[in-house]
């Protein structure tokens, strides 16, 4: 059983936001740690599991409004560990998937500060489970590709989502895609993605406020995406969603027609 050792930093994945999807190891560390530095996307329901005596501090940097620099986070972790505290750096999803863990690992190594990485359920896996869809399938998707629409500040804003041909048998998962669906659609078309390819935007995956919208790439420019955190899933493995969406549209049309007929009769 892992216990929170004094002088050690734990880079811990909080998962997609549902406390039931925390790993046992993550829960134990939350219950024991002296200090917890967490991202903004970690919900209160998970922070409530922390030891009541723990110092719990947000170090989030969402939506371009940083309250603390990345270097400042490094300093907090290192100084706290050197002071003999057990430190949990709590990140949404998995620390090693678009979580800036590489920078924090480098800083901890440079400072010779002991650290341990505790993986978590990344948003893509939670989204597949929430939609009841496998991200890979023997018939339609033998590849799974993760990418992000968000880049470091020193990179150009016009970097395309994807360059070169996208394999037809791949499921492409886009983390932090932003709100410019027209630009994303252009990038996908430029990569040779067929207009008939199913696309799904899922908001707040595995949380009570979860919502999703699906369409084919030909209509992606007009897709009404929910609020962030947002994830896009693109590929033939999403085809069952098209059948579901069509069924819903037909059902709504039938209900609307019945209501109209009833109004005329009355």
Task: Outline the structure in words.
With 266 residues, the protein is an alpha/beta fold. It has helices at residues 24-32, 44-47, 70-82, 101-110, 123-131, 181-190, 239-265; strands spanning 9-13, 35-38, 55-58, 87-91, 115-118, 143-148, 170-175, 198-203, 211-216, 230-234. Helix 3 crosses helix 4 (101-110). The longest helix is centred in the last third of the chain and has 27 residues, at 239-265. It is elongated and about 55 Å long. The protein starts with 8 loop residues before the first strand and ends with a helix.
* Form type: elongated
Distance between the termini: 70 Å
Number of strands: 10
- Which strand order do you get reading across the main beta sheet? 3-2-4-1-5
Q: What is the percent of helical residues?
A: 25-40%
The low-pLDDT segments are 246-260
What is the arithmetic mean of pLDDT? 88
**Helices and strands: which structural class?**
alpha/beta
β-strand percent reads 15-25%
Topology, element by element:
Layout: E1 9-13, H1 24-32, E2 35-38, H2 44-47, E3 55-58, H3 70-82, E4 87-91, H4 101-110, E5 115-118, H5 123-131, E6 143-148, E7 170-175, H6 181-190, E8 198-203, E9 211-216, E10 230-234, H7 239-265
Parallel strand pairs: 1-4, 1-5, 2-3, 2-4, 6-7
Antiparallel strand pairs: 7-10, 8-9, 8-10
Helix pairs in contact: 3-4
In short:
The protein has about 270 residues and is of the alpha/beta class.
Annotation keywords:
single chain; 266 residues; alpha/beta; 5-stranded parallel β-sheet; 5-stranded mixed β-sheet; 7 helices; 10 strands; elongated
